[in-house]
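Re: export button greyed out
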Amino acid sequence: MAKEHRSRRSRGSLSQAEIVAAAIRILDAEGSEALTFARLGAELQASPTAVYRHFASRHDMICAISDELDAISLAGYEPTDDWRADLRELAHRAWQTANTHPAAAAMGMNLLTGGMSELRAVDCVLRALHVAGVHGREAVVQYQVYVNIVLGSSAAQGALLSSPGLVNPQGVWFRTQVYAPVDPAQYPYADAVMSDLRQIDPSEVFSRTVEMFVTSIERMLEGRELSQSA
Amino acid sequence: MAKEHRSRRSRGSLSQAEIVAAAIRILDAEGSEALTFARLGAELQASPTAVYRHFASRHDMICAISDELDAISLAGYEPTDDWRADLRELAHRAWQTANTHPAAAAMGMNLLTGGMSELRAVDCVLRALHVAGVHGREAVVQYQVYVNIVLGSSAAQGALLSSPGLVNPQGVWFRTQVYAPVDPAQYPYADAVMSDLRQIDPSEVFSRTVEMFVTSIERMLEGRELSQSA
DNA sequence: AAGTTTAAGTTAACGCCATTGACTAAGCCA
DNA sequence: TGGCTTAGTCAATGGCGTTAACTTAAACTT
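Workaround output, generated via the alternate export path:
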């Protein structure tokens, strides 16, 4: 029963990058509740408090994790001349990341990380808008709409996938707590489509949302041409 | 220094409704970190653990708070025959609630509460879509898009308003942590609009997003008419 | 109305967690 | 080689959600 003595990690063997990688491993395998300093220490084969030499607080670490999600999403991305394809691609990448690392996405994807990868992501979206012909203040507003939509939906997807009890074996979602003794006639519209509600494909909803955005940009550009020719 | 003895609360004097009301009061005044069982007990002038007679866990209580946010948003809402106005009105109400109770909104607005008010909200949105002429599976998908957008944006707004250090005295947002030593030339598009980024009006972004949704429904209906006349 | 039952409110405790301060030793520079 | 800096470690702390056992007042029974 003697506590197994761990050899002290050599000086400089830890880094923010390694800690973030370990954290994501834990989140993927055991969910958001498992991400504690104790568990992190075990994963790193280091003292639980060693992390504090690299992050000021848990929140700081989570921001770094979130920024790493941005980095993962952008890895290998190359801008093109097709702004539609770029906006779809960037959205798709965020969505993919949320599906690959749901707990991490639920935890940090709607946070402002203040990190380099987030800045790069901002730049990529703004570039696509610029290529489309959206500039200045308008670009910033549209950027914010896009980010809200893409990151909001992705974070929600992460939460859905990583919260046990919300997803059944077939992978479709349902409500844990049934709307108890309610008169169905009181909520006829909800009642009528209850069965459909359980069978929504989240990725279809997401791509619809993204298409909605792309179309709205197209419309804006069309409107601009009209007013120019007038 | 003797501990002030509180007279025991009489037997049925606590209720889920009163607890939720107290919780929202605390969240509004002191932010999400202040919502502890101890603080809640003080607010209710009751034992911290008394809450457990009414909610199975903290998470259950938060779901109830979230459902109350739905109730607040819907209070006084009356459906009309104008589906556009109804969708705007419902979105505006959620947004208003997020601005009035930011910490509560940040905490629970993208949760599935399983409560009655959520069900009523679902019914209201589906009704508006039905009036518009969107039914069945299509209605469910559009409903989900709408909910993701409205609740996602509102929850993000709540998080923004309730996280200290993200909002300056003038009310416009900025990043706490500046993107440290980065070559501006590496992210030219982000760099070019940095000053604009700090001056976005979130409510403008929100109404743009809602208009985008309404317009996309209109377009869908137009397309439907075209294919019918063909 | 008296006795019984039930459960809401209380009390005290437990275990987990993030965080801190003091300690240790490994790499670095003079 | 010897001191200095600091990453890694250890031990302790305070706050938190949660639980079990206890109290007591309302409600039910006959």
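Chain A has a mean pLDDT of 89. The button fix ships in the next patch.
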